[in-house]
Amino acid sequence: MQRLRTTVARLRPITATQTVKSQSQARPMAVGGALRTFEPLRSYTTSVSAEPFLNGTSSNYVEEMYYAWLENPRSVHKSWDIFFRNANAGVSPGSAYQSPPPLGGAALELANAQAMVEAQPNMEKLVEDHLAVQSLVRAYQVRGHHIAKLDPLDIGVIDFDESPVMLGLKKVGEKWFYGLDESDLDKVFRLPTTTFIGGSESVLPLREIISRLEMAYCQSIGVEFMFINDLEQCQWIRQKFERPGVMQFTLEEKRTLLTRMVRSTKFEEFLQRKWSSEKRFGLEGCESLIPALKTIIDKSSMNGVESIIMGMPHRGRLNVLANVIHKELDQIFCQFDSNLEAADEGSGDVKYHLGMWHRRINRVTDRNITLSLMANPSHLEAVDPVVQGKTKAEQFYCGDTEGKRVMSILLHGDAAFAGQGVVYETFHLSDLPSYTTHGTVHVVVNNQVGFTTDPRVARSSSYPTDVAKVVNAPIFHVNADDPEAVMYVCNVAAEWRATFHKDVVVDLVCYRRNGHNEMDEPLFTQPLMYKQIKKQKGVLQKYSEKLLAEGAVSRQDYEEEIAKYDKICEEAHARSKDEKILHIKHWLDSPWPGFFNVDGQPKSMTSRSTGLPEEELVHIGYIASSVPVEDFTIHRGLSRILKGRATMVGQRVCDWALGEYMAFGSLLKEGTHIRLSGQDVERGTFSHRHHVLHDQKIDRRICIPMNHISPNQAPYTVCNSSLSEYGVLGFELGFAMASPNALVLWEAQFGDFHNTAQCIIDQFICPGQAKWVRQNGIVLLLPHGMEGMGPEHSSARPERFLQMCNEDPDTYPIFSAEEFAVRQLYDCNWIIVNCSTPANYFHVLRRQILQAFRKPLIVITPKSLLRHPEAKSSFDDMLPGTHFQRLIPDSGPVCENPEAVKRIVFCTGKVYYELTRERNNRGNDDTVAIARIEQLSPFPFDQVKVETDRYPNADLVWCQEEHKNQGYYDYVKPRLRTTVDRTRPVWYAGRGPAAAPATGNKAAHLVELQRFLDTAFNLDAFTEQS
Ligand SMILES: Cc1ncc(C[n+]2csc(CCOP(=O)(O)OP(=O)(O)O)c2C)c(N)n1
Ligand SMILES: [Mg+2]
Fold first, then answer.
1. pTM of the predicted model, to two decimals?
2. Does 331 have pLDDT greater than 70?
3. How much distance in Å is there from the Cα of 412 to the middle of ligand 2?
4. Contact 778, 743 (CB under 8 A)
């Protein structure tokens, strides 16, 4: 693959004498009933001198005549008509004039006829040429970016397709594209309404048209927008880039820009000087990122934005923290000290992953602005949906329904932006009603390399930004070595977001001065590129030289600015040496004011009852069984379901869906916002939930009874998501970060689908608190169960979640009996439950909010139990005083004579119902006890101990329907052994080890089931092994 920027026949720069000169004042002129303003008119030196009457004061008159003729050729005298036609058709100066025909009689008719004959061919040419000009304008708008000077290194790694770029006047063989040739350059053309290059002029000579198009589209900025299918938006962009003089900046703006460039550049230099062998993923080669971000923030603040949530990768992150978010420099510098002691529990994280939250005054607008940079893992782009979710939540909590007060900015590397699928998933959320954040500004640090990999082997698209086209986001490519151009596009990007509330991309085409990190040798893999980079003058040097030459700053001012910043850095460095302790809390990106005590501890460590008064259960049950709006026709099948619910309420029982309703409804009533998101969650994959009712007669008329529980309730959001797990789970996690006072749930369609969101689970949910001292109460609902449906759709992979619990399986926790449960919860990294009853599911959801701290909750949820006649709970199990049961002991005949019990079978979830059925069939319900472990993690050591002590003569069996190397066995076994102090063995009854989670053969499934049930109840099954 080689560089394919086809040479283009460029036009010579237009010289001073060729340039249009204005000679008269702008004046209004009525056209088609509307007032239009004409800028000073133009005349051309050459043609003026050749036509003797076109001089001095008469030129005003001629110009007026000309405009009138352009509007309507019949509105001027025939002689002028012929003159203008000839002039426009390129007749040489001096020959365009023909003396006017005599007035009246036959002579007039003759002259008219002659004019018609002469004008006709010219007219055709005129139309053709105008059409050609229109095509030319459009060609620049569509493909101007192909030849824009975007690459500071000018090594052009972008591969456009093989076709030549048809811009300017171009001759291929004998043929001129567009039918225009050099002889047309001085002809004047009326501009199409789809361009703004004329400013307030509606006609221009071709030479000027091309020159202006080149200025607009082929300099340091390349604009990709013509794929946008909205005329108003296209016109808006054209206007922003085509209007003459748009790229002019005031002295003050230039000086501010220079100061920002100084800070950005000198920050990296300072770090390099002090810690030359530390990794920092410096910004060298893209220093204009800092003014870019600051411009976006300034402009957005000007437009009313009060809070900006940012996500970014490693590159330049410390610089952004220092110079954009304004983290104290000493706090950054002290992170380079390896002797710093950690003040907080947990792993902490490296300095270029930590987050930050800061409220300050924006100096340009003098308004308050809150900036937060989200902590993130090394996994590139994983933070994108998290930022979106947090932004959505902040918008939601402050009633910002249009994204006018809260917005997000996402930064990307070129390789990651093109390569990571979550980028695409995140873009697809951008315009969905329950997920939109009303426009994100994306900034790509496009250094044309990813670690050691060249873009030519790293992506198939021309640009790394092509993914943004799926949502019709405009893309502004800009040469990052031209800071003014960068500032300009960032202003436009922020304005675009404020105007259309849609995503926009700024592609900073730059380079990476060093290796991937400061220790890497880039010449190993990018020899030619780096030879070029070594020759490259730094952007600050180039820009300061420009401003010095222009006289915009003096050398003294410039040097003082540098000295001033160096001093700031040195002083901060001196202060940083006093820091002995690292407080990760100081790097929190989402503080929860008022939720904890001042020392960051929970306000209470007691566990309140999660039960509800009967009237409340009845009231919520009534709402769940009704259609609380008038004239709403629901499906007949649904009427039956609602009737069934009403019957259950009458009988004081709940099934799974009703238990969930009770939990949600009561929390909403108590003021907790609930958001349930995931694929098909509104109805429920298994058609059990029906939280959104659809009018069968009116399209898109819906009713959400959960929002009719009480007048002062919190709002309930239930939303079917796009078919994404990584993006959507990340989004919900971000939503849950914003506030502890919301129950945010994500449901996988089937539990196994969570693995496409594994990164969010492994990198954020599981270790989030340990890495970033940030709690999160997100709930994952993962349908699970071996039901003969084949290897897929069966397993939520509980073993993976269990394996990542931070609890020690070999140590019995030393907590007091009263505090055992809550202390365990407080210490764990997440909670994993598999409830076997609707009441327990109800309680665990309520506990999630009523406890005074937040932990992620993983719920292994049932499928067949949703309709299992025995999987119902009495209201008695949900009344005040009742709690979530971490373990449900056997309450049957075994209790009468526990000494006689020969076996305790411990299990969890749905298999309990299979075990009890089998026990009934076998009639040994006085010799085998069955205990359900409902909360797997933290493991209820204390309650398991009660059971093992209760049945001193029983052997211990763990029974599961999952395969032996899956499910819970490996997790539970050592914990059971610890509970009994390793005095009794733990036997296994379940499926054998396997690679797939389940068989695809229904008959085999049933045989396997019967086999392990036999083992569970065969009291001799393990005698040989003991
Ligand atoms: C998901 C993921 N895969 C791989 C990596 C390892 N990695 C770290 S940086 C990097 C290159 C990133 O290139 P680019 O996105 O262009 O950013 P740059 O470093 O050039 O600024 C890679 C592959 C990672 N961090 N995350
Ligand atoms: Mg890169």
1. 0.89
2. yes
3. 9
4. no
